[in-house]
């Protein structure tokens, strides 16, 4: 059983590394795209971010499954930090999906890229005006990305290492 636990911990940490590595393109895009005015550059950044989505989701799924599975094997479901960690990561996932729907999927449509709404995929439409794109870019707030996408996972890491309760 001990070797199984070690493998699950290894997969959990490896999938977290993979997730953050794959998600780096999206994070960099989020910080840079707000200052961009050239539609071609905005499209390129959005496409680069989109290119890592599958790896990002698979690694997040593996991280989540191993994170939920490990407490069964090491019998720690009675620890508060486990439940808080799971709830915080679920919050991060839901918040990020909603933020993506409200910001980047709309931006893809506005700059003339194929886009998704819910589970439906749509072909590219003619780009919107520069004013509409600028208005959308101004709505994007990276403070939430920093708090939700970095500080909350850092708190979860702290909980996993220090197990305060």
Q: Widest sheet: strand order?
A: 1-2
Q: Which overall shape is indicated by the principal axes computed on the Cα atoms?
A: elongated
Determine the structural class based on helices, strands and strand pairing: mainly alpha
Number of domains: 1
The unreliable regions are none
Rg over CA atoms, rounded to whole Å, is 18 Å
SSE sequence, one letter per element: HHHHHEEHH
Multimerization status: single chain
Q: What number is the mean pLDDT? A: 95
Q: Give the % helix.
A: over 70%
How many helical elements? 7
Q: How would you describe this structure to a colleague?
A:
The chain is mainly alpha-helical and 165 residues long. It has one domain. It is built from seven helices and two strands, in the order H-H-H-H-H-E-E-H-H. Strand 1 and strand 2 form a beta hairpin. Helix 4 packs antiparallel against helix 7. The mean pLDDT is 95.
Strand and helix layout:
Layout: H1 2-33, H2 39-51, H3 53-74, H4 80-102, H5 104-110, E1 115-117, E2 120-122, H6 130-139, H7 142-162
Antiparallel strand pairs: 1-2
Short description:
The protein has 165 residues and is mainly α.
Question: What attributes characterize this protein structure?
Answer:
single chain, 165 residues, mainly alpha, two-stranded antiparallel ribbon, 2 strands, 4% strand, elongated
